[in-house]
Amino acid sequence: MSKKSDPSRLDMNYSSENDSLSSGRSDRSLRVAEKARKKNEAEDPFLLALKYFSQVEEGTPWKGNDVLEWHVAVVERVALSQGLSPEAISVLLDFALSSRMSSQQCVRILKILVPATVVPQDAIIQGVSWLCVGKMAMKTQVLFIRWVLTIFDLIDSKDQLRAIYGFIFSFVTEESLCPYICHLLYLLTRKESIRPYRVRKLLDLQVKMGKQPFLMHLLALYKVFSPELVALSFPSKMKGGFKNHNSTWKVALSAVQKRNNAGVLTDLRLNLSMRTQPNSKKRKFSHLTIPAVSSVPLRVSSSKALPLEQLRDFPHLLENLHRIELPAQMGSMLGSPLALHYIDCVRDNSAFLRLNFWLGHSLHEEFLFCREASSQNMAEATRFLNTLISTQRLLQEGFSSTEVFLYRFLRVWDGSLLRTQILGLLSDIAVVPSSRIKVVLFEPLMQLFFTSSLFFKCSVVECLNSMLLKWLTWHSVYALEDELDISVTSQTPQNMTLSGLMDSVVELVQFVGRIATVGLQLEGYHTLLLSFTLDFYETVCGMYLKYDLPLVLMPPAGVFYPALLATNPVSVDRLCQIMHRYRASLVSAKLQERQSQKPFHISRKTYREFNQYVVSMVNCLWNSRAFMPGMGIELAEDLLARSKVTECCSTFNLIHHPAFIGYAVDFHQKCWPERKELDLNSIKMGKCWDWYTEFLFSEGLWGLKEFVQSSLSHRTSSRVSGTDAR
Amino acid sequence: METQGGATATPRNQTVMHRSSRRSLGVELTSHFGCTPGQLTAIRTQTRREISKPRNLSELVDPEHLAALVKEEWRISYLTPMYQFKHTQLQSYSKRLAAFIVAEKQQGIGVEVGPEMGLKVVFSAVHGLAETEDDAEAVFIQIHSKSAAAEGEATKVVWSGWLCCVSGEVEYLRSLSTDFTCLPLFGASGAVSLTTTVMSWFERTFDCYFGPLGIDSTGLKWLAALWTGCHPDINIRYLKLSWTIPAQPPLDVSYTVHPQDAWELWNSIREVDGLGDTVGIEEVTYFMKGLEMHFFRHFRIYLSAGTLTKVTTALGSAHRDGKIRITSGDMMTSVLALLTECALLKMPI
């Protein structure tokens, strides 16, 4: 549009100059310029048209006026293709509203007023002053205000419009204008525009006109800014927003905008959509309704404060971060995604206490105090808890009231009601001091664990794994913050010392070790439960290297051996990987200790345990010495004899192990396709063993590979004599 | 944004503060109550309380308030601490609540705050009910309606209610910051719809939340013992206990004991293991067991198999649904203290 707008601006300047100067000097240069201009004008029908509209006399007949028709057509073409420049808008608007020709012409012009870039505020002011003159037909007045509403976001500045708020307000009494004026006022209202007499006027109008949505919305906005002046309740069924935009304009406008690639018109939507939708099917005494965001009704807020419900979008939030006012009910913040981002910036202890009171009250009332539990509100409860979980995940912290609630709820929980949600919330709780972790967490969980199904057992282990992960993450983040001395000042969520955190972690890991041992026995070493247990130990084995927590805890025998002797290769492979990571941790710890950078002590016992496990693994898988003295599991000779398994020592080596025998057969077939008889022992011979292990690695057993490469000092074919943990 | 500037200067302090703010529930709540979650209830339930002597409240409390308090039957609720509630603002609360009630009635029509409407709300502070200096002053609320027919002076009280805290647990009250006012016990009498509206106004204005407060059988037994214990000072006239027995069809038992007999039983228990000025829960249990045994001897019905639903004496009555009536000011503070305790036990944190 720049191509068009520049000449027209020139034109306007010149014409005004022209008026004052034409009779005066007859300067040559001026004449030349005049000539050039005239030529230019003659060439550009649009400028001619503008000139026509700015100069046309009042009372010019319009019927059969071909000149007029011609100019309107030109303007229409330009308007719909490129949009009109600010100057052109001013001229045309002035022409239309001054009613210099008939009102039909006025309507015609208004309908094609599509701005290309912005609309000058002055033009609107002038329009309003024409409105005050009172010559305009009502239809034109309505059309004008609707046009203003449509292009409102394009008005270059609004300060003067706000200055004449009172003038605009005076039109609310016009019945047919009222809906549109209310909308315009809604867009212009600031806290300082609200006066008691205006409130009274609107209330009078409401008495006269009844529950009109436009009045309600404007009053609601007044209530937002000045709750001390007006009280209003929204009916539960309320249509949202004003519907006053003219869609023809909007379509034309967006087409022009698109063509001009201008980003001026970002969003014509109103912020009313932010308002929480009233839940019409609300249960009568539901405790799980997130309150609607509303402003503080009592505290005298400074005029600069921005009520949270006025927030439009994220950029708006960022711009106003310093002056946002917390809502009257802190709980309402949970219902608005925008407000959630703001919670993170809140530094007010009372605000969180309020939030916790609300949350705790809702949870207690619904799940602990409420006597009858009906199935129909299950959906509601699920939704509420999911909101809570996603909020906590967003903030990366659990709320204290959730925690207090969970401790109470765990004691009465049947383990199936809202299992996913409850365990989800549970995994979010902050580090529990070791002194009470047993009472509040382990005892109720243990009871549920041993009396529930396999799937519940799996989900409990999964939940505890995720809990441990979060504790470790907290620790590693805070340890990074206080990088100088992690052992003394480390700040964890509850101002816990490092040793306190470690105690809790030890308790947690040992607890999982215990329940996993018994759980695996109870469930016949079910692969699924074993898999979740190994998940947990994958976290545990990385505590030192990955999360910087100076702690290495080995799995109990009740988890280690079932995994080693498992019937599926995945479990054995994962165990190998876990052992490899333990090794890495211990090696690194040893190194640290030697260099005495960070003195911490890992007990001999841990090393001994680790070595014992590695020896067992190697003896079992490589050396075919399962169940021999010196291994973790020893069986008496006569007992082994009674099992009537020949060569029971080698039944768990890489060839005969139930998890690997499939691979061995496969390998055998590939090596000796012509052989009819299966002789797995031949794999042990010579180079074959090396090939076999390579074959296993190539089948995707990476854990095994890592373990072999790190723990076996020399990979000779038959005898691997010693292992070294260091 | 100044805080942001500060954050860049001292990132560590900022994060530390931030972290503690969301978790630690303000000041010392965590250290006092967070330590034993899951057992909060057990620990905070009192097993001993002082023997309360009847007291003449009429010298302390405004007789008008006292008269209003003893007249009605109240449905009680608990509420979480109120944020930014100021006893100095009661007048403005009156206007706002009135406007709110009218606005709620005529959904969608705005109401100007201030001018007189068909409704008048009066908030007033009740002095003299608070027992310790940590207790906030009780608040009494009355809603008068000006009926259209009899315009002018004829106003009728259509709803009344009160908020109070009597001998609230000091530790809990002190752990709250000064932004909060803890009046955990709420009594209402009048149309339920008005009660709901008033509650919702409080919730929206002070960010506090209400829940029904039933009186469990332990609470009712305490009340029975409490009232019986003061029989020598004030004639309780009768001790009436109601049970529901889970039989088919359900059996309601009403058991009225002569006050002198009840007192003698109570006194005999007190004589055996009475410990000075306090009464223990064991004594209360013995007392009730004695009454139940006596009933069994006559009717062969184990009352302990049922639920105690109501306790009534001439001094007042209490129902397990949370309906109470206090007909005499003399024992009012003791009853309210007991109920305050029940209400505080319901606090979510």
From TrEMBL, chain A:
InterPro entries: CENP-I
Residues in coiled coil: none
GO biological process entries: CENP-A containing chromatin assembly; mitotic sister chromatid segregation
Transmembrane segments: none
One protein family per Pfam: CENP-I
Key words of the record: Centromere, Chromosome, Nucleus
Source taxon at top rank: Eukaryota
Region Disordered: start-end pairs: 1-38
GO cellular component: inner kinetochore; nucleus
Subcellular localization(s) per the UniProt record: Chromosome, Centromere; Nucleus
Segments of skewed composition (Basic and acidic residues): 25-38
UniProt record similarity statement: Belongs to the CENP-I/CTF3 family.
Protein name according to UniProt: Centromere protein I
Automatic annotation (TrEMBL), chain B:
Pfam family, one: CENP-L
Keyword Nucleus: yes
InterPro entries associated with the record: CENP-L
Keywords for the protein's UniProt record, in alphabetical order: Centromere, Chromosome, Nucleus
Subcellular localization, as worded in the UniProt entry: Chromosome, Centromere; Nucleus
Biased composition (Polar residues): 1-18
GO CC, any one term: chromosome, centromeric region
Region (Disordered): 1-21
Record family assignment: Belongs to the CENP-L/IML3 family.
Protein name per UniProt: Centromere protein L
